[in-house]
Amino acid sequence: MTFKKLRKLRKKAAKGQHWFCFYCDLPMGGEGSPWQRALEPLGTAFEASAEHLVPRCEGGGDTRGNIAAAHVLCNRRRHRRACAMSPDQFAALVQRRIGSGRWFYREVLDLLRSLAG
Known about the structure:
5 helices, 43% helix
């Protein structure tokens, strides 16, 4: 897989998701994002990354159906877990933690929610 192809798949996924993170359902930045300018001060953690729904190490491919767009931060947090979770299980965990104020700093969450409208 070339970086160029993976970047193209990530951008297609992000556009298809209307630039909302697969896990937290909040706006993502990145080239082409309508929120890129507002999210730039937060750094790269809130840019879109290519998330393999089925990890490569488990036989998941670099295909359009296996790539979703997620914040770099959300993507990292999923893959750093000691206990692996399915994408749907992880999304549910993220939503619960957002609801209890334990996923993003309050200021970041307020900004992301204000962008989402």
